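re: ur question from earlier - yeah i can do the single chain one, its not a big deal. heres the input i used so u can compare w yours
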Amino acid sequence: MMTSAPAFEGAVVWVLGDPTSAGLHAATLRFTAGPPGSYEYLCPVPGHAAQGMVGTFTVTG
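and the output i got, formated as tokens:
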């Protein structure tokens, strides 16, 4: 469950995306990053972030 707004406009995928040949789902997300810093991303499927489906990316200036 998302508890705050995305850090950058357009930086969210609300659907699972298209199934791949392996039966997984993939989506492409494009956005313009703003202020430099480290930002977290997570899987929005309930329970997935708690199981480790999270990461961090860094925006440099």
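Residues 9 and 32 are 8 Å apart (CA to CA). not sure if urs matches, ping me
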